[in-house]
Amino acid sequence: MLGWAITFFIIAIIAAVFGFGGIAGAATGIAQFLFFVFVALLVISLVANALRGKSPKV
């Protein structure tokens, strides 16, 4: 998910350099959305792992 966000961010930067404002804005919006979804899933994963409380096997 983070890889897709970075990809859309790079597309947005390239489009902005070449003057395609509409495409750059859309790609930035998509990248921002994907980044926040990634962060939300990361937090949910970390909380679920902490609540599970499994001790590591030695």
TrEMBL record:
Q: What keywords would UniProt list here?
A: Cell membrane, Membrane, Transmembrane, Transmembrane helix
Q: Which domain of life is it from?
A: Bacteria
Pfam families linked to this entry: DUF1328
**Parts of the chain that traverse the membrane:** 7-27, 33-51
Similarity-based family: Belongs to the UPF0391 family.
Protein name, per record: UPF0391 membrane protein OPS25_07105
* Organismal lineage: Bacteria, Pseudomonadati, Pseudomonadota, Gammaproteobacteria, Alteromonadales
